[in-house]
């Protein structure tokens, strides 16, 4: 059962530098051939300072940047072996491009326990607020985790 007193708890900050090669690799992996994700000249011709971040890229920030998230969730009593990904939502506040360094702080913003026929499940929502190297808020990412009991 989720400890509701953990709502509002923030984990330590993490950083990730957005690399041009990673933007290119992600676009290749998802089959996006738009040249703005592969070629600096094309990105600049389209009005970007550098290769822009593809819209769903923040999903990978958890794996590239916040490599301790699973340990952090376990530290507040979440059984990470029983986690299902529920939902992801992004709010872009300012452009993000190659060579930006983002700092993310993940906070537990909601948590509840729901009864099921088999017992119960916890539904946990986190929000990660990202600022860039200029301390400008650029992105908020919400993630819902379902923890099967």
UniProtKB/TrEMBL annotation:
Pfam families in UniProt: FAS1_DH_region
Residues of the FAS1-like dehydratase domain: 7-139
Domain of life, per lineage: Bacteria
Name of the featured protein: FAS1-like dehydratase domain-containing protein
Species name: Dictyobacter formicarum
């Amino acid at each position: 059962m989720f400890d509701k007193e953990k709502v509002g708890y923030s984990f330590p900050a993490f950083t990730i530098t957005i690399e041009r090669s990673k933007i290119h690799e992600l676009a290749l992996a998802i089959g996006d051939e738009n040249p703005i994700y592969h070629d600096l000249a094309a990105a600049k011709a389209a009005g970007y300072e550098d290769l822009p971040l593809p819209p769903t890229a923040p999903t990978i920030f958890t794996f590239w940047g916040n490599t301790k998230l699973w340990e952090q969730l376990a530290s507040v009593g979440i059984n990470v072996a029983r986690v299902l990904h529920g939902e992801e939502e992004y709010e872009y506040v300012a452009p993000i491009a190659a060579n930006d360094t983002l700092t993310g702080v993940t906070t537990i913003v909601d948590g509840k326990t729901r009864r099921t026929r088999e017992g119960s499940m916890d539904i946990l929502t986190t929000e990660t607020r990202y600022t860039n190297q200029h301390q400008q808020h650029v992105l908020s990412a919400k993630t819902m985790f379902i923890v099967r009991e």
